[in-house]
Amino acid sequence: MNDHDAVWRLIQELKKLPGVGEKTATRLAFHILGRGADNARGLAEAILSVKERIKLCRICCNVTEKVTCKYCSDVKRNSALLCVVEDPADLVSIDRTGEFNGKFHVLHGALSPLDGIGPERLKIRELLKRLDGGEVKEVIVATNPTAEGEATALYLARILKPYKVKVTRIGQGVPFGGDLEYIDRVTLGRALENRKEI
User: Fold this and answer.
1) Is the pTM above the cut of 0.90?
2) Which residue among 5, 14, 17, 168 has the highest number of C-beta atoms inside a 10 angstrom radius?
3) Is 60 exceeded by the pLDDT of residue 40?
């Protein structure tokens, strides 16, 4: 074992983060190395804390430290409107537009048979359970405009038919192949306004 093994291991771990390649991982590793031990300890503790304390909301499957997340607990939000997203980052992006005041449901992925992701791997059972009460009148499918997102949207539209809810898809303006997390607020807000029934 030489002096660089710990740095090499850190670089390898950082490369596992989305959007982080070899150069960025190396730059981050040496930045961490150059900071004081307290800064490194603070970062490590924050990562461990989030892994230990964060769980899924019992209602919408969003990430939270409590039993129910802030969106499900907010009585001012419209319970008749339910926006279905792939992951928590998409939820935050939609909420940030200020155009949506309903409730959310997080699937934690999209259908991708090639990757072995079928309906049973997503939080679809939890979604259907929420529709049993009859409170939800419209489900807005806000999956990413990718092949997997479109397949998921069509699947949801089909299985939601018996529930007698209006099923809409976010409008165009969001580019195909893009991730909601990276779409600007105005475009995403317009897409929500121009949603259509599927």
Assistant:
1) no
2) 168
3) yes
